[in-house]
Amino acid sequence: MSTPLDVLLGRQSVKFVQAPGPTDAQLDLILQAALRAPDHGGVKPWRFVLVRGADVPALVDVGVRAGIAAGTPLPQPKVDNARKWLSRVPLVIALGCRPDPSGRIPEHESLLAVGAAAMNMLNAAHALGFGAFWSTGIGTYLDGVGEALGFDPLDERFMGYLAIGTPIEPPAPVRRPDWRDHVSEWHAPAPA
Length: 192
Hints:
By secondary structure, the protein is α+β, with helices and mostly antiparallel strands. The protein has one domain: NADH Oxidase. It contains six helices and five strands; from the N terminus they run αβαβααβαβαβ.
């Protein structure tokens, strides 16, 4: 039997997914997990937009239009690859952040809270047997994309997409870095 730690250590990004996606009950659990993320100041900065089924491939068109409007059209191979990828994805969760409007909590803390919520969703999807992938492609950083998805451009920041579904192929094992290469230990300076 897997422990919760086994589930966390076994998670990896799975880009290529297909139907079936999460049921409504499973999606409810995934979204509940999202809102368990840390939230300094209780500002509840999370904003999510669900895109399902036949609406998913239309996300490419939103990115294409935004690229043209910005004068930086997306390269056709990138557009073609995105269309092929999204043609099978059953669920996309667009991620947004609404930082504290009072400015009391620094914006970066709200962005981190949304990032933590996204990670909770990725872990929950994995624990439920789905594959999931966080993408900042398809025009995430172009003006107009977030707005087209319903995010308010004046006080919300669009942060990308989570694609969730059943893995098309079993994920190949991934060699993980050694944590020791990324960790140091601090010691207080000796008293003078």
